[in-house]
User: Fold these one by one.
Assistant:
Number 1:
Amino acid sequence: MGFEKLDEMLEIAQYTHRAPRKQLEAMCWAYWEFASNNKELFQVMLRVELTSSFSTYLVQEFPLRRLKPVIEQLLVSKKKGPLASQERYFQFFSLIQAFMPGSMYESVGKNEEKHTRSILKEKISGMIKSI
């Protein structure tokens, strides 16, 4: 259920924009928002990840089918192959995971949440520009 809901949010974010860079940015934010708005469900998804190799595959690979093709579109002009898009995907995945809302794990104030979003916005933008 959680993975399907996440995929639905990623799909909506992707098709809201036409430009690959905007799609990628929107999908990163959709992933982050999903975790933020579905804290308990997302924690269960991550907790399952820690106990099952199949779930690890789902948490890390499930969004791959949405993000990787967009990353590949951006890499076409640089003549980079599929391995490069896989590496970029995992860089995005790691970045978003590293900045998961602190409120998922503890109570944080609005200013801290706003600061985290600001830093994540910079990081996402920088990573997209580096492609």
Note: The chain is about 80% helix and 0% strand.
Number 2:
Amino acid sequence: MELQDRPIITIRNLEKTFGTKKVLKGIDLDIYPGQIIGYIGPNGAGKSTTVKIMLGLIEEYTGEVEILGENISNGNVEYKRKIGAARGRGPGAGAADAAGRCGHRGSQQGVQYRPHRGPGAGESDGRGA
């Protein structure tokens, strides 16, 4: 089987309960290399919970989650070095906020963050006057 033919994320029968409220009820999902998905649903549907489980922020769940061919419940966190996530903060969280978060994350990895300053911000666009 070619690498492109295998999912990079596989979720099977994922379930999560908070107290008496079951927020994930048997989620099954495959995501393949190059695929772009939208994970949508109403508030409280479990979207953020699913992502937090994939990032290893929530460990108490049932079902299987594999990322890059590795079951994340095995305790090995090496897969986290190969993935990233940008979380929004709801309405009003704009590009400047996202850029700031990316700059902060990059600085943690030794990457220098320089905000783009295009025309109108004191720099030429290279096309002359």
Note: The first strand starts at residue 9 and ends at 18.
Number 3:
Amino acid sequence: MKFSTAQLAQSLADYLAPYFPGVHFYEDPNQQGSKPPCMFLQQRGGEIKLRQAGRWLRTIRLDLVYLEQFNRPDLQQLYNAAAETLDEVLELCQLDGRLTPTVDFGHLYARTLGALDGPAAMAEILDKISAALGEERAARFHSHFSKIQFTPNGGEKMHLTFDQS
């Protein structure tokens, strides 16, 4: 069967429309004329595996994103609150075996006021992911690494380059 992301987005939009009246569905967040509130799909990689009888199975990973408003002044704080909490991310991933966690080590570092540092701290996080999702799923996740200057309450002040201390 052949299909495109646009067809998938349209099918998803048709299915979700009754539950989200007034929400626009777009194939791309930068689509010309897009206006919030809206939803869009982002492709997050995939894989192809050989299955029985010479058949191939292609897995496409997609994120469905709901955008309430553009250029919110508190958007970074809202993003940080959701992305930094490893326990919540792992809890969501346990709902469905197809969900893959995104772990933002820089934000976890800032949230813990720098306590998350060194090999032992990284091993603890990886062990936590493995305990929650199992060895096979824990071996594949999306991650972000960045140096972050944080505020006294554990918020992000600014991203730093790797040359900055």
Note: Helices lie at 5-16, 75-83, 86-93, 105-111, 119-133, 135-138.
